[in-house]
Write a structure and sequence with these properties.
Catalytic activity: UMP + diphosphate = 5-phospho-alpha-D-ribose 1-diphosphate + uracil
GO molecular function, one term: magnesium ion binding
Oligomer: single chain
CATH topology: Rossmann fold
Strand content: 25-35%
Structural class: alpha/beta
Shape: globular
CATH architecture: 3-Layer(aba) Sandwich
Radius of gyration: 18 Å
CATH class: Alpha Beta
InterPro entries: PRTase-like, PRTase_dom, Upp_B, UPRT, UPRTase/APRTase
Order of helices and strands: EHHEEEHEEEEEHEHEEEH
Number of strands: 13
Family: Belongs to the UPRTase family.
Largest sheet: 9 strands, mixed
Number of domains: 1
Cofactor: Mg(2+)
Length: 209
């Protein structure tokens, strides 16, 4: 079973409070999502492997640590996942960025893939899939299936907030995927919105309704 990590850093909790606030406008909302994504990135990358290299300081020659040759990729689920990419790239500027696009079929309510473009060497990379909200898990499950179908083997899912129902659905469908959350919320309501939640992340990022 993949591991579940829920952040407990005061800065993340502080910023998510203002992300939730309905009075936070799109500009500030985007900035906060970027900042929280960057802070969460410290935890998501905590177990990256290191290797020694030799460098010269102004004083002497020494061995020092760098991240080993492991390749990274960031894969936002369109469209809301795009809001988390910039913060991650601040930490990981050499990471490649893929994209997965899904829409929900109005009759079956299933997620349908309409776009997927990933780095060519996807099977060699650790992929961090970003989506601000994990509600029912339907979209994320389909996105992870699309990514695996193209050869990815090492995948992490990173969300700002989640409902327990969505977490359970991911763990059952993709037990090999670690899940990183800014906060775990109470539940889904009858309309499958996260409670207390933050509304529709895509609309709040881009000022649409």
């Amino acid at each position: 079973m993949g591991e579940l990590f829920v952040m407990n850093h005061p800065l993340i909790k502080h910023k998510i409070t203002f992300i939730r606030d309905k009075n936070t406008g799109p500009k500030e909302f985007r900035e906060l999502v970027k900042e929280v994504s960057m802070l969460m990135g410290y935890e998501v990358t905590r177990n990256l492997e290191l290797e020694d290299i030799e460098i010269e300081t102004p004083i002497t020659t020494t061995k020092s640590k760098v991240i080993s040759g492991k390749k990274l990729g960031i894969v936002p689920i369109l469209r809301a996942g795009l809001g988390m990419v910039e913060g991650m790239l601040t930490l990981l500027p050499a990471a490649k960025v893929g994209h997965v696009g899904l829409y929900r079929d109005p009759e079956t309510l299933q997620a349908v893939e309409y776009y997927c473009k990933l780095p060519k060497d996807v099977e060699e990379r650790t992929l961090i899939v970003t989506d601000p909200m994990l509600a029912t898990g339907v979209s994320a499950i389909s996105a992870l299936e699309a990514i695996k179908k193209r050869g990815a083997k090492d995948i992490k899912l990173m969300c700002l907030i989640a409902a327990p129902e969505g977490v359970k659905a991911i763990q059952e469908a993709h037990p090999d995927v670690d899940i990183y959350l800014g906060e775990m919320d109470e539940k889904l309501n009858d309309h499958a919105y996260i409670v207390p939640g933050l509304g529709d992340a895509g609309d709040r990022l881009y000022g649409t309704k």
